[in-house]
Amino acid sequence: MNAAIRYYTRSGNTEKLAMAIADATDIPANSVDEPLSEPVDVLFLGCSYYAFDVDEAVKKFITDNCANIKEIVLFGTSAMMRSMKKPIKKVTDAVGISVGEEEFHCRGTFGALHKGRPNQSDCKNVVEFTKKVLAKRNGL
Ligand SMILES: Cc1cc2nc3c(=O)[nH]c(=O)nc-3n(C[C@H](O)[C@H](O)[C@H](O)COP(=O)(O)O)c2cc1C
Predict the structure, then answer these.
(1) Which pLDDT value is given to residue 80?
(2) Cβ–Cβ under 8 Å, residues 107 and 77
(3) Would you place residue 78 in the very low, low, confident or very high pLDDT band (cuts 50, 70, 90)?
(4) Contact status, residue 69 vs residue 100, Cβ threshold 8 Å
(5) 106, 116 contact by CB (below 8 A)
(6) Are 64 and 53 in contact (CB under 8 A)?
(7) Could you tell me where the beta strands, DSSP code E, fall in the chain?
(8) For residue 106, how far is the Cα from the chain centroid?
(9) SS3 of 82, please?
(10) Could you tell me if the CB of 82 is within 6 A of ligand 1?
């Protein structure tokens, strides 16, 4: 079982989570500008909501790299909304990629809202979440 991390960020909130996961798992975290160079069993994909949708760059990454992705597990930040499955599944369903049942979400700073988020505790929680998913996919 192999895994990769990709993320999209505008102000660094989701990148913070991606880097925490990378530090704890030794799986390199790169932005969605970096295509997958080999097939992955699980892609941890970090993204956020902007005007009730995920960015086009995230959708394009999924479509462009679909041949190399077996499953996507989502993590992300936002100011109000939670699950990103709805906009993501519109894309993954079209190209036949499964989206893991599990998803990590926390608040991200947006102007005066949620200052300091994601914080240390959010980073700890996303690491725990990722380790649990990895253990499960490894049959542990
Ligand atoms: C232009 C813009 C639009 C946003 N729209 C939403 C939204 O519709 N729903 C929501 O919950 N958060 C919204 N947010 C808040 C972001 O999802 C939140 O700040 C997130 O943590 C940003 O992550 P990033 O720094 O990784 O880009 C918006 C932020 C921006 C800048």
Answers:
(1) 96
(2) yes
(3) very high
(4) no
(5) no
(6) no
(7) 3-7, 29-31, 40-48, 69-78, 98-107
(8) 12
(9) coil
(10) no
Mutate which of 50, 75, 83 for ligand 1? The one with the most ligand atoms within 8 Å of its CB, which is 50
CATH topology for 3-137 is: Rossmann fold (3.40.50)
The answer, yes or no, to whether any atom of ligand 1 lies below 6 A from the CB of 90, is no
Q: So what's the pLDDT on residue 121? A: 98
User: What distance in angstroms lies between residue 67's CA and the mean position of ligand 1's atoms?
Assistant: 29
Residue nearest to atom 28 of ligand 1 (CA): 50
Where do we find the tokens 């660094």? 12
DSSP 132: H
In the structure encoding, which two tokens stand for residue 100, read together?
A: 């893991």
Residue 13, pLDDT score: 98
**One-letter amino acid for residue 79 of the chain:** A
Which residue is it, tokens 């725990």? 128
Ligand 1 and 10: CB distance under 6 A: yes
Q: Where are the domains of the chain?
A: 3-137
Residues 6+ apart with CB under 8 A from 61: 6, 8, 32, 35
For residue 66, the 8-state DSSP code is: G
Provide the token pair at 86: 């709805």
